[in-house]
Amino acid sequence: MQIVKTVSRRVLSCMKILFKQLIQRKPMVTLQVEIDTQIEFKRTLSWWQLLAIGLGAIIGNGIFVLSGQAASIYAGPSVIVSFILTGIIALFSALSFSELGAMMPLAGSVYTYTYAALGEYLAWFIGWNSILLYLFGAMTITVAWSGYVVKFIYLVCDLNATRAIVQAPVGWNETAETFYVTGQTINLPAIAITIAITVLLIIGVRETAMVNLVLVVIKIIILLIFIFACCKYVNTKNYDPFFPTNLGSFSKYGVTGMLQASTYVFFAYVGFDSVATAAQEVKSPEKSLPIALIGSTIISLVLYVG
């Protein structure tokens, strides 16, 4: 009986220690020391380079991939409202990130903020969620980019590459919301662009930011030309009904479909988190971070609606 009591006390003691570790927070004093003493990162980025990083992460995903899918599957023309609603929510998140990032300009982003406010366990959980978020974001962009490149090559030189090397073995059915086997082997263009960007990141964050800035400027110019050049071709009859009749499902048209599309396109806005992760490499983070976070969210919202 005495042995059982001793073992029970030790187990309880270990559990208490473990629980204290899980809820242990990192004080602001400790974070400030890390900010002041860590010299691995050089603060080389300006606020406009940081703004371009945010725009590069947000715009491409939503405009070139998600907007058409959200309109056709969930919302119809009311996808515009979905982007506005989601943009307002994302703006509130950007305001929170701005304040926290200015206080704690570390590369950990939301992981660091959670560690300081809620403890180690929740920070660990949020950190893994962020990894998954970036993983799915990168996969979505690279696969979409691959599809555009393959089609472009086919249109330019009539080279129809075998699907076995330009499509992944597993795909996602948007309508049925299930994975399916494509029968193909590998998506080489998607792998190639992933390797190329990885090499660019290894070379240096300043070089990456400059390349990203050039690409973002080109992308925004093209989008503005597209928006203004196509204004006279807009057929307003396509906006009637603005909220298409609900087809008996929460996620298929109607107001509920618009709300479902909001949850779908929010994935496009979370690119502003990439701004916060660069906090340790930007000059004057207390000023640059809010400008880049809020600015990229508002500019993206305007472009999405346009």
From TrEMBL:
It holds the Pfam family AA_permease_2. The chain crosses the membrane at residues 47-66, 73-95, 115-136, 186-205, 212-235, 255-276, 288-305. It comes from the Eukaryota. It is a multi-pass membrane protein. InterPro entries: AA/rel_permease1. GO terms for molecular function: amino acid transmembrane transporter activity. Keywords: Membrane, Transmembrane, Transmembrane helix, Transport. GO terms for cellular component: membrane. Its main location: membrane. It is found in: Membrane. The keyword Membrane applies. This is Amino acid permease.
